[in-house]
Write a structure and sequence with these properties.
The structure is a single chain. By secondary structure, the chain is α/β, with parallel strands linked by helices. It has helices at about 20-35, 45-55, 70-80, 95-105, 120-130, and strands spanning about 15, 35-40, 60, 85-90, 110-115. α2 (about 45-55) packs parallel to α3. The longest helix has 13 residues, at about 20-35.
């Protein structure tokens, strides 16, 4: 996956969490085509479980989820030793200042409003992810 300057984004393990199954599947497929290893979850409980077993480096997490909302998912993952280093980005339709404040308070590293542009996602991931040495 390239950012807008053409710089290659290193390959990462990315968990996509969205209750819109088509949206989650499409984003995971795009990320997979661009060299990332992906997994998908469709509700909050499944997201916490998938994060524990898949151990992603990045989670793209919708806020409005069934069972546990995205804020609760983020907090639950952050409580785990393995969850501390994960880059968690809110990928949501909720974009008001209060929504962004809540995502920061819950432990998110970034907040993007859907529909997200590919370049904006790549730019944010490039900024948030540590460089990998081949």
């Amino acid at each position: 996956m390239n950012d807008s300057s053409g710089k290659q984004l290193a390959s990462h393990r990315i968990l996509v969490v969205d209750d819109n199954r088509d949206s989650a599947k499409t984003l995971a497929m795009l990320l997979g085509i661009t060299g990332h290893e992906t997994a998908v979850a469709h509700d909050g409980l499944a997201a916490v479980e998938a994060a524990g077993s898949f151990r992603p480096e990045v989670i793209l997490l919708d806020i409005g989820l069934p069972k546990l909302n995205g804020y609760e998912v983020c907090r639950a993952i952050r409580k785990e030793d393995w969850g501390t280093p994960i880059v968690i980005v809110a990928l949501t339709g909720w974009g008001q200042d209060d929504d962004r404040r809540k995502s920061t308070e819950a432990g998110f590293n970034g907040h993007l409003v859907k529909p997200v542009e590919h370049d904006a996602l790549v730019k944010l991931l490039t900024e948030l992810m540590p460089s990998k040495t081949p």
